[in-house]
Every structure is written in C-alpha cells, then in structure tokens.
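Technical annex, item 7. During the second reporting period the consortium partners agreed on a shared format for inverse folding records so that results from different sites could be compared directly. Each record opens with the tokenized structure and is followed by the designed sequence. A conforming record, contributed by the partner at site C, is shown below for reference.
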C-alpha cells in the first residue's frame, strides 16, 4: 500500500443512484444535469480553481436550476398536483438561498464557502429525494378513488 498522508479524496457531492430516481424521465434527466453542475463546481474547487471559471460554473448551475424549476412546475400543473403552490414556494426559497451563496462566491473571487456545498447536498437529499418524489408518486397514483377534482 502506498501511503497518502493527506489524501483528501475528491469525492463528488453525490453520485447518481436509485435513491435520486423519482421515476419521471424528463425530471430525472434535469436532476442529473443539476447534479453534474454541482459536482463540476465541487471538483474545480477541490482542484484549487477559483475566479471567473468557477463563477461561470456557479452561474451555469443557477441557469440549469431555474430552467428545471420552471419545467417541474409546468409538469406539476399538468398532472393537477394538489401541493403545487407549496412546492413553488420551496423553489422560490431555494433560488433565493442559491442567489445569496452565488453572490458570496462572486465576492470571494469564485471561492464558494463550505456552507454552499452543505446547501447543495441538502438540496439533493431533502428536496429531490423527498419533496420531488411526492409529485412523482402522485403522477402515478390511480386517479378518482380519493377524489382529485381540485
Ligand atoms: Fe426537481
Ligand atoms: Fe422541486
């Protein structure tokens, strides 16, 4: 075995696995894009990059996310998802928090804070795995039995 005194393994924020699969193809694809964009920022930061290239990656994550939230809200409206308004509110809050972290990273010349990465991990773990899963389950649930008129 070779010794690695400071072996800070470059680990992804999260790798794609079945726990992130909500069973809605288009949304899964966009979630993967978000995951890739997050990991790109993390890898670049771990490799010591900063400045404009990292800021551009953060901006890219912001753009991919805004587009995804829009698409997801259209999808939820299409399936008459009862909790759409609450879900929209959560998206708005996520975008607001993201903008705050984005501004902090820009002010720090493209060096994101540890809190930024914690925020990204929580987003994947709590939002996609739990909150997004609910509309996905709803989209597959048999309609009519519990009354889906609203
Ligand atoms: Fe989502
Ligand atoms: Fe969502």
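Designed sequence (site C submission):
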């Amino acid at each position: 075995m070779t010794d690695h005194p400071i072996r800070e393994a470059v680990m992804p924020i999260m790798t794609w696995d079945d726990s992130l699969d909500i069973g809605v193809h288009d949304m899964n694809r966009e979630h993967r894009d978000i995951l890739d964009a997050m990991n790109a920022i993390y890898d670049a930061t771990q490799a010591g990059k900063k400045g404009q290239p990292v800021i551009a990656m953060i901006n890219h994550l912001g753009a991919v996310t805004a587009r995804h939230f829009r698409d997801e809200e259209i999808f939820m409206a299409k399936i008459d998802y009862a909790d759409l308004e609450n879900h929209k509110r959560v998206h708005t809050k996520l975008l607001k928090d993201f903008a705050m972290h984005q501004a902090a990273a820009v002010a720090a010349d493209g060096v994101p804070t540890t809190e930024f990465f914690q925020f990204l991990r929580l987003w994947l773990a709590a939002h996609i795995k739990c909150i997004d899963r609910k509309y996905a389950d709803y989209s597959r649930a048999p309609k009519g039995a519990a009354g889906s008129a609203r």
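The two ends are 63 Å apart (CA to CA). The helical segments are 25-46, 52-78, 84-107, 114-140. All partners now use this format for quarterly exchanges.
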